[in-house]
Amino acid sequence: xxxxxxxxxxxxxxxxxxxxxxxxxxxxxxxxxxxxxxxxxxxxxxxxxxxxxxxxxxxxxxxxxxxxxxxxxxxxxxxxxxxxxxxxxxxxxxxxxxxxxxxxxxxxxxxxxxxxxxxxxxxxxxxxxxxxxxxxxxxxxxxxxxxxxxxxxxxxxxxxxxxxxxxxxxxxxxxxxxxxxxxxxxxxxxxxxxxxxxxxxxxxxxxxxxxxxxxxxxxxxxxxxxxxxxxxxxxxxxxxxxxxxxxxxxxxxxxxxxxxxxxxxxxxxxxxxxxxxxxxxxxxxxxxxxxxxxxxxxxxxxxxxxxxxxxxxxxxxxxxxxxxxxxxxxxxxxxxxxxxxxxxxxxxxxxxxxxxxxxxxxxxxxxxxxxxxxxxxxxxxxxxxxxxxxxxxxxxxxxxxxxxxxxxxxxxxxxxxxxxxxxxxxxxxxxxxxxxxxxxxxxxxxxxxxxxxxxxxxxxxxxxxxxxxxxxxxxxxxxxxxxxxxxxxxxxxxxxxxxxxxxxxxxxxxxxxxxxxxxxxxxxxxxxxxxxxxxxxxxxxxxxxxxxxxxxxxxxxxxxxxxxxxxxxxxxxxxxxxxxxxxxxxxxxxxxxxxxxxxxxxxxxxxxxxxxxxxxxxxxxxxxxxxxxxxxxxxxxxxxxxxxxxxxxxxxxxxxxxxxxxxxxxxxxxxxxxxxxxxxxxxxxxxxxxxxxxxxxxxxxxxxxxxxxxxxxxxxxxxxxxxxxxxxxxxxxxxxxxxxxxxxxxxxxxxxxxxxxxxxxxxxxxxxxxxxxxxxxxxxxxxxxxxxxxxxxxxxxxxxxxxxxxxxxxxxxxxxxxxxxxxxxxxxxxxxxxxxxxxxxxxxxxxxxxxxxxxxxxxxxxxxxxxxxxxxxxxxxxxxxxxxxxxxxxxxxxxxxx
Length: 898
Known about the structure:
The protein is of the alpha+beta class. The protein has 17 helices and 43 strands.
């Protein structure tokens, strides 16, 4: 029956919606039958299929589940009596377990996923020392070889493995090698004597210290424990740029293991080998891999220890000759840079090319996908990231790609549904192992919301709707990737990327090397992937396809329906008018059609050269009898200027540069005779001066909440005396219709190594545009309304891990509004404790002037939501106010631009 399902789900299903519905039904039916058969076999005592040969990892699509939040199959294991279980409380266990996950495999398989990645299932410290947060996520281990009872039993885990393998799917387990839970801390640490200042957290539940040897030897005051050296006996990291702290200090209070100790290495190999042997795990994802040395993984994978061999050997003995292990290295490169990508690659290959880990999470690609499709950055930056990815990574097909996960904002917290579909299609048409984070297919905006009705964030209903538009769209994308293997095994060549604004991006996927020779001629044809990231039509001019003129391109897939076939023009060029927020895929065929005869010629020249200092003239010629041209700047057809040539074909026009504010940005202009010809593009830059229009200091020490309040910071040492939310200055600059905000703080810190360069503060900036009707007064998620009769049209929310811009449409106390692109670009100057945001004119409505605009800046902190407030401060919550009090620690007052 599995073969029948594969047969039904052929390429034609991409063109026939009725067949696709049948295909999904067959898949779901087969998956449901397989799951029931697995349960019946287990109940009858039949042997379980725990071990299966390794798949070709390039072709896999993983579905990442936070087990506690996915499905509750056994309510009896929810509450372990430690105060850790509280449905509806985001900080507590909600009840999801392995049995519930198994019951929902048909749902997962219907998406086209080929494997399930689960958060760590091992026994955990259930509550943090203060009792405010729980380890529902699984990353606070107390025993690496036992299953956490909240998730079920070892038999439940084996049954899940059997059910997956029976359906040709794989099981990926999240693991941790650098820390346990938080069983001790330091007050007054001294490097010379780790016993001094050592503070055990003796009241943790369910055990006061890890129960598994040798990790139970965690007290340096005991000479035997100290001599064993299982831990590094260090305080929290305060500087993530310090390699010693990164690899030897505690991350957020979690006890750091001495992974340079052979005893620790052996214990970890033996612990995780247990899950491969006993359960049949097919792959591991390694949490926080950056916090151990890259060389550690050579031992972890390949140690020649007869009692505890490396994981590659353990897996080989169970029939897995390609055991996949990929690590997490949280590093995002800015455009044009690849230092973080190279650091990530150092965990895959050593300096002499020696293998370490098979793969790593591709965080730089994640950042570029979000920038292009959620935040409106020029898509050329994503194109550059793709090109760098191929150069930096020795095996880009084993890098693991994603668009959001449990540690960052959901894509839809700041991006649109249209942008989400584009990001998913890009991920499915690039090298790498794609990961779908649970709930994406249901439009989740909270990073750790529940899929089942009783869990936090579910909205009180189950969220397994297989007819949801995003679910159906993802199923079609995974089918596209599976049908055309060049998308999972081929190599991209970036052909075009708009360098100035949202717009066109295109790449070509080809087979390379010996694998190309093994393909049939029809299979060797390249596939073209084309996007328009703008909110209006864009021009993709003269794309160099590398194909003979007349080649027919067959439309394979489009986000809004299959695109029409296209024909390559003279010189192998193809000019396309792309709809807003579109994503389209074509495949070259052996078919030929007569290319359009190009009798029209268009020429264009710039006045004043490649650097302009204001509006400027362009001119040119076109073949006589062409009645009109369009002057298109940066591909933007919505603002194209119509030009009428004279009788001899000469023409001229003036380029408006009011919205061009970055002298480093390369713009492009073409003259286009639609359906006939396009000129060669001409590039230029614009140097425009920024002017300071407002510079207002803010009092020191007024970061205590609204007037009359006495809010206090969280008690975690990461805040301490740093007062990161104390706003000290607001300086505003303008350049035409663009806006730049410089926000000075008491101090910038980076305890959690945030990609945006600052943490423990979130800025929420409200902007009222002059002369623009409408707007809102509510301050979403902050339990407050704007002061001074102000109304906002734009709202910027930015923290260490997020940068989202919203418009007022749809905004309410619980809804942030409508995502707007392009969002702000961000810069941090730690020397002056200043964070700067630049909003281009395109985001601000392209107003001729911002005079009279009003701005209101607030500070708080954000972690998947605005941090809680209560009468007493907690480790990660503010104190001194009511739970429903305003989430404002400091504010600028309403500022009016002169």
